[in-house]
């Protein structure tokens, strides 16, 4: 048995969301499970779909209150609410309505054994880059990309780590490929400070 509290798992910021890698912390292998925390007015669940993973997801609001929007439909979600999104193509997001709002998400692909998502592997490398070694983080993400070729999110994150490590040309190439595969990567790049060192390059994708 392993016991912890959500607040005891260090948050990793990405896209304005405070992710807490619950599955990784507990060593769960059968399904995906992660936590999210935010204060009032902040994004609790980033806008996304699950097409790359094919996952069904259940969101459980633990504390506070959130407002979910799934395929344009709003749902008030006070503590104790479960929101099930069965269709991987559904666009979903949630905003915290109260300070100290937290939620868990549990997900997986119906009828198949669970595999760790590429984005989780990449996110776990963020502290390495923040500790001053973005080159090592980029090298590790390149290995993840080899296992998930063409994954737009992995390509984008690889570009970010490469940019932080001063690897301009590969960063630009991976960023362009990410945008070709997933158009919203262009929107992410427009405001991502990790890519600031590339903005003066003629090859940087315009917003």
What is the terminal-to-terminal distance?
A: 49 Å
Q: Could you give me the name of the CATH homologous superfamily of the largest domain?
A: Jelly Rolls
CATH fold-level topology of the largest domain: Jelly Rolls
Based on Cα principal axes, name the global outline.
globular
H/I helix tally = 7
Provide the succession of SSEs.
EEHEEEEEEEEHHHHHH
Q: What is the average of the pLDDT values? A: 93
The strand count comes to 10
What's the architecture of the largest domain in CATH terms?
Sandwich
What's the Cα radius of gyration? 17 Å
Question: Which secondary structure elements does this structure contain, and how are they paired or packed?
Answer:
Blueprint: E1 12-14, E2 17-20, H1 22-26, E3 32-38, E4 43-48, E5 56-63, E6 65-70, E7 73-78, E8 82-85, E9 92-96, E10 101-108, H2 118-123, H3 126-130, H4 134-147, H5 152-164, H6 168-181, H7 184-191
Antiparallel strand pairs: 1-2, 2-3, 3-10, 4-9, 5-8, 5-10, 6-7, 6-9
Helix pairs in contact: 4-5, 5-6
Features:
single chain; 207 residues; alpha+beta; Jelly Rolls; Serine Threonine Protein Phosphatase 5, Tetratricopeptide repeat; 2 domains; 6-stranded antiparallel beta sheet; 4-stranded antiparallel beta sheet; 7 helices; 10 strands; 31% helix; globular
